[in-house]
TrEMBL record:
One Pfam entry name: Glyco_trans_1_4
Matches recorded under SUPFAM superfamilies: UDP-Glycosyltransferase/glycogen phosphorylase
Keywords: Glycosyltransferase, Membrane, Transferase, Transmembrane, Transmembrane helix
Transmembrane segments: 77-100
Name of this chain's protein: Lipopolysaccharide 1,6-galactosyltransferase
EC number: 2.4.1.-
Superkingdom of source: Bacteria
MF annotations from Gene Ontology: glycosyltransferase activity
Top enzyme class: transferase
Gene it is expressed from: waaB
Length: 349
């Protein structure tokens, strides 16, 4: 019997990694043959709808406004009258509300969590509400461990990762006598992204040994002030927000991620898809699924000297085979991801 499936999300910017993953999994594919229809319900609206226009016509898209009461009314309407067999929820608030509607009105849909953040570190995630879901899609092995630590049984969890395809173009190292590093993401001096850790590492490197390219917006003024205060003797270039930085980057030695926590760091995976190795903190969750000895280095969170050691390895001409770097992402290929996603849903009864 063909199924009706709903994917329900909180407010989306239209430019983030979650939208990229949704667009990938919702492209017309062989698994759509088993679906009667699929609805994408975006609560709280969106800023950029270009990605919505690229979805196939079989995907029915619905929006709600920023008004909290109206959001809950829209969600309730679709849960009551959508006739869905499976409801995939991208926030714990949506999981909880879906469970309340199901209980009060005696509906029979399955509730599936699909959280794109570290469960114990993100303020918008309430771990207690995850127990209201029947099944869980996990985007990293770290999130699997977090779910199991909550007492959720392994048979209720499906590890699907995120989709990242190997690119046709290989970005080669710079050849100008210095190491070019890139950070791609939200600019935060402290907190989740913790760029202070990277800046502290720069102070311990030989002067003018590194050029750091930063792509993103956020606390740029605070970061510049910190660099000036600590007399960082490296070149830092601020590129601001760029829609697709990988099309702008011509040469690069490595991408750096100094996060305190992640979900599945797409920028790190994208870097490797172009053959660029990564240097990342071994934070919960995600980097350990992506980085291995053939495509980069992992260092302990907070270990600035460990980060310095890894950057020095590049300065001392530790070479990676850039074709091999790309090939390490094989299990994240789009076709394999879609197979894991839809096969996981088919198994959920």
């Amino acid at each position: 019997m063909k199924r009706k499936v709903a994917i329900i999300t909180p407010k989306l910017s239209g430019n983030g990694g979650t939208e990229t993953v949704l667009k990938t999994v919702l492209q017309e594919n062989e698994y759509f043959e088993n679906l009667n229809r699929i609805d994408l319900v975006i609560l709280g609206g969106h800023k950029n709808n270009q990605w919505i226009t690229e979805l196939p016509t079989k995907v029915k898209v619905h929006f709600a406004t920023d008004n909290q009461i109206l959001r809950m009314l829209v969600l309730s309407y679709w849960l009551l009258f959508g006739g869905f067999e499976q409801v995939i929820c991208l926030s714990t608030t949506i999981i909880h509300w879906s469970a309340l509607i199901r209980k009060v009105f005696r509906k029979h849909y399955l509730i599936v969590s699909w959280i794109h953040f570290s469960i114990f570190n993100e303020k918008t995630v309430d771990p207690d509400k995850l127990h209201y879901a029947d099944y869980h899609l996990a985007i990293s092995s770290g999130i699997v461990k977090q779910l199991e630590s909550l007492g959720i049984k392994a048979e209720r969890i499906r590890l699907i990762f995120n989709p990242v395809d190997k690119k046709k173009r290989v970005i080669m190292p710079a050849d100008d006598g210095v190491i070019h590093l890139a950070y791609v993401g939200r600019v935060m001096l402290k907190g989740q992204k913790d760029l202070q850790e990277l800046f502290d590492a720069l102070t311990l490197l030989p002067p003018q040994a590194v050029v750091l390219h930063i792509y993103g917006t956020g606390q740029i003024a605070e970061c510049k002030a910190y660099l000036a205060k600590h007399h960082v003797k490296q070149t830092v270039i601020w590129h601001g927000w760029v829609k697709d930085p990988w099309q702008e980057i011509r040469t690069l030695d490595a991408t750096v991620l100094t996060s305190q926590y992640e979900g599945f760091p797409m920028a790190l995976a994208e870097s490797i898809s172009y053959g660029v190795p990564g240097i990342a903190s071994d934070c919960p969750t995600g980097p350990a699924d992506i980085i291995d000895s053939e495509n980069g280095f992992l260092y302990r969170v907070g270990d600035v000297k460990g980060l310095v050691t890894d950057i020095l390895k590049l300065i001392k001409q530790v070479h990676f085979n850039h074709v091999t770097v790309q090939q390490t992402l094989g299990k994240y290929a789009t076709d394999k991801f879609c197979q894991r996603f839809w096969a996981s849903l088919a198994e959920m009864k």
